[in-house]
Amino acid sequence: MIILVAIDFSDVVEHLLDEAVKLAQKSGATIYLLHTVEPEPDFVGYQQDPKAMR
User: Fold this and answer.
1) Is the pTM of this model over 0.70?
2) CA–CA separation, 51 and 35 (whole Å)
3) Residue-wise pLDDT tens digits, 17-40
4) Across-strand partners of 54?
């Protein structure tokens, strides 16, 4: 089992991580953290070659 936790460094993340750890310990799951950011304005409209994305 995998637990994916989206984090944004807000105040609730610590509680969310505590709960994810408890669940992972009970189930033997692996926890993955995901954090995304807004793209830089210089990269807006940037497209990658579909072949390179494979």
Assistant:
1) no
2) 26
3) 999 999 999 999 999 999 988 777
4) none
